[in-house]
Amino acid sequence: MAQCQLAFDFRFYDFQTKNMKLTLKIWRQKNAAAEGKIVEYPIDHIEPDMSFLEMLDILNDELIMKGDEPVAFDHDCREGICGMCSLYINGEAHGPDRGVTTCQLHMRMFKDGDTIFIEPFRAKAFPVIKDLVVDRSSFDRIQHAGGFISVNTSGNTIDANTIPVNKKDADDAFDAAACIGCGACVATCKNSSAMLFVAAKVSQYALLPQGRIEATDRVLNMVSQMDAEGFGNCTNTGACEVECPKGISLENIARMNREYMSASLKG
Amino acid sequence: MAKSALLKSSIAKKVAMALSGLFLMLFLAQHFFINMTSVFNSDTFNSISHFMGNNPLVQYVIQPILVLGVIFHFTMGIVLEFKNNSARPISYAKNNGAANSSWASRNMIISGAVVLAFILLHFYDFWIPEMVYKYVDVNPLNETRYFSELVHKFESPVRTAIYCVSFLLLSLHLWHGFNSSFQSVGFNNKYSRSLHKLGYTFAIVVPFGFIFIALFHHFNH
Known about the structure:
CATH class of chain B: Mainly Alpha
Shape of chain B: globular
Oligomer: heterodimer
CATH architecture of chain B: Up-down Bundle
Number of strands of chain A: 7
Helix content of chain A: 25-40%
């Protein structure tokens, strides 16, 4: 008997309900210095095909119409590639779906009548600016500490393709480079560790000949900056790998550990 | 790089934690094999215990390293737990940890605390009396006392029950700790899947083997 493979996962689709009624419990905080609290908002007429951010747009429209302050949240491309959107939804970074950012999370992942907790990414190194918006510039400072290669851009730059790279290394470097720096790894880690992010940035260069030249300084400086920012230490729970919207592997953390210890002994 | 910076770094602490854990697992494995001989042959158990208790290398080199290893492992575990907790001053109102990680991996401090309490009891039961016997009272060598001392400890149902519960928690600690220690020292490659299976086997066989030994002596003597 011929078997039919469905491209769409219908397990999560509630065909009966086109308009979902939900209760949102959202973290509201006026500014960085203010005390925050969870505020409850009932919301109706939400369609399963809406994205999570569209649902929040509707809530904000309603709040504005009522004269209330809309909920502040981060977003930019809404295509799952910029790493700007965040949100800790029902106890998971970027919500219950896998391999997606919040902008690519759809309301079909929830059921009519659900209560949804929406909180900012929590970490000392990610202070809340307002409501659900957090300051992730600690990631920028880690990048500045070594997440680059120094090349002469005076016009004599050699084409990267002229340098042979082992296929496996090229693939692994590309996988590591898929990290969009959203911070889900930090948010989901019980220790607020940034090691998956830093490991991805270290790995994407460490695996390529162009990156080897500054590899020692890079890993030492980036880890040192990571520690200075106040992130916790990795205890290998693997939660970051599961929640990462880009599927960054724990292999990168093992590689960073090797790189770091070897660089420390050299230095 | 300054050595002080290395010692303070998160990765160095993580690697040190893993290395001490690996050393303690090696110790646990040899302890398990020696204790298992008590089930089959009391003479074999006595002679191996006598060797371990009187060999200068074991007594004056390996034993102090072991004690330091235990102290280092739990001290570092507690230090890292406090540091990691301080990295998130405000907790989530709703957190679904079970969605992405095992209970064992998230609660190493709980299983570790129970194992530490057990180690203290174990020191009180065996190690301190042994030190007093040999180095304080300076008793003459007796190659046949070990088996009877072991059996005597498992006469009490309460102590036997405490041992069994502690080993269940040790099993959970090893369930995550074995594979985590290899990941921390940078071992993650094509052999990792096989290593994970070995880790889970170790986490079941060794603690449950110890439970078997405790129950065997409790019910047979």
